[in-house]
Every structure is written in structure tokens, then in C-alpha cells.
């Protein structure tokens, strides 16, 4: 479980194709690896990955084909920057919202509109996720917990403060680039519970 508060901008240092449409990635992240052990979880652009090795500030993780197909990790290259967050510890502050690191879909950046103290950034909204996205609700974009400012049938917009732009990959994303989306898990559970009721 994560909070959507990015701790560090990491860098992909090695990508190795594995068997059956899988891959092994190596990510440089001195902060998130400072106390990482084999088996720990680290969020990479919103995808929960398991540490299999950690040497000199670089951790390695297996990425199965399902993850490559259902997230933007398959588009990463050596040198790509990524958002990194260690798993939340019980008893720590919850600065963002409850984030599982399970990507629900991939969207694209549609537009960026600068304002005085922030930037309005709009992303496409996959049809199958639209029912979970509401104005003033939470959404995770590339592992960043954000508040939805506005929603249309096929887009949603967020307000991005300078700190978010500076300290996450969202600040350098270009129009048309893919991002990982994770909707609020509470909305999915509510839908399932209400759907099972005999009304």
C-alpha cells in the first residue's frame, strides 16, 4: 500500500527482456533503496514492484508481461526518469490517499494550461474508468496522488502545483505521452457491494 506521495525521481539504468514477454528492470533511487530489502515493495510510476536485488542505490525488479501490457512501463527506456515511493508504514502520516500500486488503465496527457501559481493538466479518461472519477475525488497518475478538478465524458483535469511539477515526472510529460492511472479503490469496493444488493 502507498500514499501517492512521490519520494524520489529515479532513473532506469538497465532493461533486460525476459522469457514469455517479461522484463527485468534496474532503477537508480538512492533514497528508496536506503532501507530496501529483497521482497520489499516500491512503486515505480504507480506500479507496485517487488525488489529482487539492491546494490549501491540501484534496485532490480521483475516485470511480468501482464504488467507491461496494462501499464506504461513497457514504454520506458534506459535513462527514463520514474516516480518512486516506498510502501507506506503503519502509523505514518497519510499525505495523499490509499494507493495500491495496481494500475487500472493507461491514459494520455491531453493539454497543459499554465496559471499564476499552478498548472491545469488534462488527461484522457478511458471509458471503463469514467464511473470511478468524480470532481474533488482522488486519482493516482503515474503514482502521484492528485485531486480531480473537473471531469468530462472522456477527460479529467487536475491542478498541478510547482512542487509536483518539479519533483515528479509529470512536470516533464509532453502532450500525447502515456500515464498510468489508478482510480480510488474505495469507489470500486462500493460499486461491488451495491451491485450485489437486491434492490
Automatic annotation (TrEMBL):
Lumazine-binding domain sequence ranges: 1-97, 98-194
SUPFAM superfamilies named among the record's database cross-references: Riboflavin synthase domain-like
Alphabetical UniProt keywords: Repeat, Riboflavin biosynthesis, Transferase
One Pfam family hit: Lum_binding
One GO BP annotation of this record: riboflavin biosynthetic process
Annotated EC: 2.5.1.9
Name of this chain's protein: Riboflavin synthase
